[in-house]
Design a protein that fits this description.
It is a single chain. The chain contains nine helices and four strands. By secondary structure, the protein is mostly helical. It has one domain. It is flat and about 60 Å long.
Length: about 325
């Protein structure tokens, strides 16, 4: 079997495995007591990760350069990064909900690359002059890995909002704690309760205290099961830690891109659409980390910010290439 035929087989196999794995994760979430299902699902993601790695390796051998020069290759590299981050997050958190969230996006990316892209966009092509640099592997690979981590972290935040129903909950654990993800259980902030300070001297005691009394102006009561609260705590912590991994990679990628841009075009920064949206992406996730580390935010507010970051990453990665031309448009859509 030649390398081209091997690549075609591997991309279709990757899509099929991720599709079946997605179904396994969803069935596992619906029926959590089914034995061995989580093991099969995790094994499927690991096999898909290896298939994609083999696909990229075959293209590297076939074309003679690092396989990140066109949209097809970058989509599979992004999927490889997402599955790698997924395996790490699942190992650390011990929660199979990670796979139920990440496998649909990984499967969708492979489907788009394999089925939707024209054949000519999937084929390897000679590098344009600006890409004939050692910075290709350094800059593009780091940026793609940062996108993978930021997307998975943002998906964890979106899953947190779904699990909690968008309700405000108070998390007792610290954002920068180093203990177990399961050690602290969050508690619900009940909007039906108000705190009214009173004097204990009225009841024969001294000092002050606070009495929790019902607020009858509000009728809806927040009620989340302990399992959902524990799951929300895991998702919140994993989102923070994975975004904390992706943000330094994004920073390194932007800096290395500036150095490469100066080497190729004589300017560190040209306000190209891709550069502008990379800066916007950096600012959004910098705000997320600032709110958690400095402000001590946890739960709903940073999750909403990370959810916005999910959209911003996709605009930076694909949107600017769909909407207009720029210095980064070659090898993609235009």
């Amino acid at each position: 079997m030649n390398l081209v035929a091997l690549q075609n087989s591997l991309d279709n196999l990757s899509f099929l495995i991720l599709f079946l794995t997605m179904l396994l994760y969803w069935v596992g979430v619906a029926f959590p007591k089914l034995p061995y299902l989580p093991v099969f699902a995790t094994t499927g993601v690991a096999i898909a990760n290896l298939c994609i790695a083999a696909l990229l390796g075959a293209r590297w051998l076939d074309a003679g350069y690092f396989p990140l020069s066109n949209l097809y290759e970058s989509l599979f590299f992004l999927t490889w990064g997402i599955t790698a981050v997924h395996l790490f997050a699942e190992y650390v958190s011990g929660s199979r909900l990670v796979g139920a969230v990440t496998t649909p996006i990984a499967m969708g990316i492979t489907a788009f690359a394999t089925i939707s892209l024209p054949v000519e966009m999937q084929a390897s092509a000679p590098l344009v002059p600006a890409l004939k640099s050692n910075w290709l592997m350094m800059h593009v690979s780091v940026m793609m890995l940062s996108y993978s981590a930021l997307l998975v972290g943002s998906l964890m935040a979106i899953a947190f909002l779904i699990v909690t129903g968008g309700q405000k909950i108070e998390l007792r654990g610290s954002s920068v704690g180093t203990g177990s993800y399961r050690q602290d259980r969050p508690k619900v902030t009940n909007p039906n309760l108000t705190v009214n300070p009173i004097s204990l001297s009225e009841t024969g005691f001294t000092g002050n205290t606070a009495v929790i009394t019902p607020n009858f102006n509000l009728t809806e009561t927040v009620s989340l099961s302990p399992q959902r609260l524990n799951l929300a705590d895991i998702l919140d912590n994993m989102s923070y830690r994975i975004i904390g991994l992706g943000f330094p990679l994004l920073t390194i990628g932007i800096i290395s891109g500036g150095v490469w841009a100066n080497e190729a075009w004589g300017s560190y920064w040209s306000w190209d659409p891709k550069e502008t949206w990379a800066l916007i992406t950096w600012l959004v996730f910098a705000a997320y980390l600032h709110s958690r580390i400095t402000k001590g935010w946890q739960g709903r507010k940073p999750a909403l910010l990370a959810s916005c970051g999910f959209v911003v990453v996709w605009v930076c990665y694909l949107g600017v290439n769909l909407l207009g031309k720029g210095l980064h448009s070659y090898g993609w859509f235009f």
